[in-house]
Write a structure and sequence with these properties.
Layout: H1 8-12, H2 15-27, H3 29-35, H4 110-116, E1 120-125, E2 132-136, E3 163-165, E4 177-181, H5 204-209, E5 212-216, E6 223-232, H6 252-265, E7 268-269, E8 280-287, E9 293-301, H7 309-314, E10 316-317, H8 325-331, H9 341-346, E11 373-379, E12 385-392, E13 411-418, E14 429-431, E15 433-439
Parallel strand pairs: 2-3, 4-8, 11-14
Antiparallel strand pairs: 1-2, 1-5, 3-4, 5-6, 6-9, 7-10, 8-9, 11-12, 13-15
Helix pairs in contact: 2-3
């Protein structure tokens, strides 16, 4: 039990935790675990000076919860650069290599890790950075609360927190989008390295050294290729918020529209093909282009026997990536128009999609007002789609012909209008008809 009157540094530098660090340095984590069978292992790996401030930011009309990605004091340097050591046993995993042909040598003993904490669900490794951490998910998480935002992988208090999966990825590591968060620490630890993909402009040298990463689970090693690096806002004063905080999707169309929105905002253009059958992972950390900004890195899981060197060699700075409004307010220029995936696909403007194009469901993105154009969908009384259209910000939607609801149970139904007015559109909308039931005489 920690002494709450001590500083985090004092709590970490106990004889017990000093022994943990010494043993880890000598022989690795597994040897220590075997030697200290009954020990509840406390790791003193990341000493951080300032507390991150938790806040629920109301960033658009719907009140999107962005508290999982709270600001870090990245300008304050700390002295510890140790990471949680990977263990030395591997179970049922095939040999894998990085794109440059070098072997992937990190191995995890999932049985040993589960004995430490059953919330450890995965392990993330970037080859040329300090990112080499367990990834956790707490069932306690929800709106405004994230258990590991200031706790280490063993549940001890740690202001640097852990790498953790967002509660909106309801299936955890099996989610369509594994939405993952980590602080950007001043000593370069946790997810600070993600900002090295570029601040105002992309760093292509860094990208070429880190085009992929491994996100492993007890089921096996999985390599992922980065296809988007996005700069986005959380403050309403900086413009509408692009809701990248989506771990699950209602339809294939919605998933592909999410990919489209990532692609048009990416500061790096990587010709990675993507379709509705792919899985993605989104990594989010605080960055400081503007106050409380985020750097968001999105990657696709490699397909079987896929060679990615061609994508990597063709990667280049994006010609005109979409930034939040605050960027154009400060530096000038015109913000590119954003429509939707299916709109651009019909115009033959999508060259990275390799699916069949027969997408099910509605494509509008939940709780987002992050574009200059919005999708307005009119549905019938039974939920079937009557029409879908793209409307510029502040524009007017075109209402379809009055729908008809068949008589039933002794009633006839008179159409009275639509739920929402078609004017001054500023967010994605689904509009349903209103009927008055009148008894049949």
């Amino acid at each position: 039990m920690e002494d709450k009157n001590l500083t985090p540094e004092e709590n970490q530098n106990t004889p017990e935790t000093e022994a943990v660090k010494e043993e880890a340095a000598k022989g690795g984590f597994l040897e220590l675990f075997k030697k200290k069978k009954g020990l509840v292992i406390a790791i003193a790996v990341l000493v951080v000076v300032l507390v991150c401030t938790l806040a629920i930011l109301l960033v658009n009309l719907f009140g999107v919860d962005t508290s999982v990605a709270t600001p870090d004091e990245s300008t304050v340097e700390t002295t510890t650069t140790e990471t949680v050591p990977a263990t030395t046993e591997v179970q049922g995993l095939e040999d894998t290599t990085w794109p440059d042909g070098s072997p992937y040598e990190e191995k995890q003993d999932w049985a040993a890790l589960k004995k430490i904490n059953t919330d450890i669900k995965g392990w993330i490794t970037f080859k040329n950075t300090v990112i080499n951490y367990p990834v956790l998910k707490s069932e306690e998480d929800g709106v405004g609360y994230q258990y590991y935002i200031h706790r280490a992988y063993d549940k001890s208090d740690d202001y640097a927190g852990s790498i953790f999966i967002d509660y909106r990825s309801t299936k955890g590591v099996k989610s369509k989008n594994i939405l993952t968060h980590g602080h950007s620490q001043g000593d370069g630890t946790m997810f600070m390295s993600l900002i090295d993909y570029g601040k105002w402009e992309p760093d292509m040298d860094f990208y070429k050294k880190n085009p992929t990463f491994f996100f492993n689970t007890p089921e096996g090693n999985e390599q992922w290729i980065v296809f988007a690096v996005v700069k986005t806002n959380t403050l309403e004063a900086h413009g509408d918020f692009f809701n990248y905080l989506m771990g699950d999707f209602d339809s294939e169309a919605q998933f592909m529209n999410y990919i489209y929105n990532m692609k048009v905002r990416s500061i790096i253009d990587v010709p990675v093909p993507i379709n509705e059958d792919d899985d993605i992972i989104t990594l989010s950390t605080c960055s400081y282009e503007f106050d409380e900004f985020r750097t968001v890195v999105c990657a696709r899981k490699l397909r079987n026997n896929e060679k990615v060197t061609d994508y990597i060699n063709k990667a280049k700075p994006a010609e005109n990536p979409v930034w939040p409004d605050v960027y154009y307010n400060n530096f000038g220029g015109e913000r590119p128009e954003i429509t939707t995936f299916q709109t651009e696909l019909k115009k033959n403007n999508i060259n990275w999609y390799d699916g069949e194009g027969k997408l099910e469901g509605n494509e509008w993105l939940k709780l987002t007002a992050g574009s200059q154009s919005f999708t307005v969908t009119y549905v019938n009384y039974d939920g079937s789609v009557i029409s879908t259209q793209t409307v510029p910000r502040g524009g007017t939607a075109i209402e379809p012909e009055d729908p008809v609801k068949p008589d039933s149970n002794g009633y006839t139904y008179i159409f009275k209008g639509w739920q929402y007015d078609p004017y001054d559109i500023r967010y994605n909308m689904m509009n349903a008809p209103i009927f008055e039931a009148v008894p049949i005489e």
